[in-house]
Amino acid sequence: MGKFIVIGERIHCISPIIREAMATRNPEPILKRAKLQLDAGADYLDVNIGPAESDGEDLMKWAVTTIQSAFNNVPLALDTTNRKAIEAGISVYNRSKGKPIVNSADAGDRIENVDLAAANDAIVIALCSKAGVPADNDERMMYCQELLERGMEQGMEAEDMWFDPLFLVAKGMQDKQLDVLEAIRMFAQDMGLNTTGGLSNVSNGMPKEIRPIMDSAMVAMAMQAGLTSAIANPCDRRLMETIKSCDIIKNNTLYADSYLDL
Amino acid sequence: MPFTDKPQVFTSKIREFSFGTDGRELKLGGYNTYPLYTFDAATANPPRIGVLISDQGYDRTVPGFEALYGDCNDVPEMAKKAAALPGADFVCLELDGADPNGKNRSCDELAALVKAVYEAIDKPLAVMGCKNVEKDTELFQKVADVMQGKKILLLSCREENYKTVAASSVLAYGQTLGAESAVDINLAKQLNVLLSQMGTPEDSTVMNLGCAAAGYGFEYLASTTERVKAAALTQNDESLQMPVITEIGDDAWSVKEALLEEADAPEWGSREERGIQMEIVTASAALASGSDALLLKHPESVKTLSELIAGLM
């Protein structure tokens, strides 16, 4: 197995600074966040432009070329509900460091994003939900099958479909956490699929000093279950140290005394 | 169903390394497939062969060495013969005489010899120390200084002396360097990390993962080399993407199969033949496990391995 893949989540239009930078096409704040995340060890960067209904295509193209040209064609996850914007982003995307990730498809309205990924030789994050949170793992598994079949019909390689079990906030949905881990286990170990998800959801709403601890515990348990990637905050040092250590224990990376520095 | 060829080409690659200047540059590595998997993608640089000679002369009891070097008056003349061998890509001068427990030759004297050897040949030069860490540290410093700008390959720094050696040879005088670990994959990685943290350019080092003759613990070396290549390619481990150089000749010619005289083991046949076989068998196995440069001694081994490599490319 390869090393765990961290998709840096911090270029997100929910942040006022990023939203402003996207609206005014000001590269500086975006590149600054990109650099922080890459220095901290992110493998991919997520670029969330929001729904961007009016100028999504132009904005995504701008964001992709701006970030990739500044950072040696760093691979990106294109994150928006605007399908045309994702297509536009892929049209200018340089794949020398890795395929683009379409973030995301689900088993409901957004299932066509699987087709989009297939048509563009991209990776797709396949959210195992339809409308809202899946009630249980039977439902998760059903959506997983639907998405997988859709991808296969379109000629995708299974390894390019990264299944997202939907991480849930612990504060409020504490009783569902083991279900998520079990879903990862089924996707990864029973079906041999790649998995990812928005890890930070787990600690959402918790005090700032608690979040790294909760996220680290969750990622360790999820990696044991078979999680191969996460959309997470790479600037969280405790989280990155946990992931690197789990990668050693899982024999995903080779140990050296300086492994935490790498 | 039609057969679809799916070449196993990695996005990560074994870094291209080069040593030598003035029209005698030699490149190693630079491929993104498993070693020798030329059916997956073309290999930029084939594995290379360096011919080992020593400041202490050669084994006069082996007819092949005698035939090659018999009329040489000094080491530079030997170097010239070695460099001209069919299949030789570079020369590796071993400074065995530096050993404080042996001849204990001075660093100044040996640095002058390195210079004379370099001037006698028209191929790139690698220089190997005497394996005494303290003496080698001093020796490499001197050699690097004398050979400034020639981008020779120094073999090798170890965990105990990497700081001084890298600072004096690579950073100060622009030489290239081997990083030696004794069949220990974690240490091999760590040494590369430490060198890169010192600011040593990643394309200025090769890995020397240790050596062993076939049948004498060689499988540990083979599995270490294989795992280094696998981590470099499948896990994109940048701290293991340097090419690998493997010393073969000294080990192959120091085991009983290559040492026992024919009179003492008549049923084993010609001693020279056995030595060559040990060298060829060890070298071809090292090649298969992923070595990018082989250091060989006997002209027959150099010829055979160069033909094998040409056939595999």
Overview of the molecule:
- The complex is a heterodimer of chains A (262) and B (313).
- With 262 residues, chain A is of the alpha/beta class.
- Chain A has a domain of 98 residues: TIM Barrel, CATH 3.20.20.
- Helices cover 43% and strands 15% of the residues of chain A.
- Chain A has an 8-stranded parallel sheet, with helices on one face.
- Chain A is globular.
- Chain B has 11 helices and 10 strands.
- The longest helix of chain B has 19 residues.
- Chain B is of the alpha/beta class and 313 residues long.
- In chain B, the strands form 2 sheets. In chain B, strands 8-7-6-5-4-3-10-9 form an 8-stranded parallel sheet. A two-stranded antiparallel sheet of chain B has the order 1-2.
- In chain B, strand 1 and strand 2 form a beta hairpin.
- Chain B has a single domain, classed as TIM Barrel (Alpha-Beta Barrel), CATH 3.20.20.20.
- At the A-B interface, loops of A face helix 6 and helix 7 of B.
Total beta-strand segments of chain B: 10
Portion in beta strands of chain A: 5-15%
Poorly predicted regions of chain B are none
CATH homolog superfamily of chain B: Dihydropteroate synthase-like
Please estimate the helix content of chain A. 40-55%
Number of helical regions of chain B: 11
Q: What is the CATH class name of the domain at 1-98 in chain A?
A: Alpha Beta
**How many structural domains in the coordinates of chain B?**
1
The name of the CATH architecture of chain B is Alpha-Beta Barrel
Name the structural class of chain B.
alpha/beta
Over all CA atoms, what is the radius of gyration of chain A?
Answer: 17 Å
* CATH H-tier superfamily of the domain at 1-98 in chain A: Dihydropteroate synthase-like
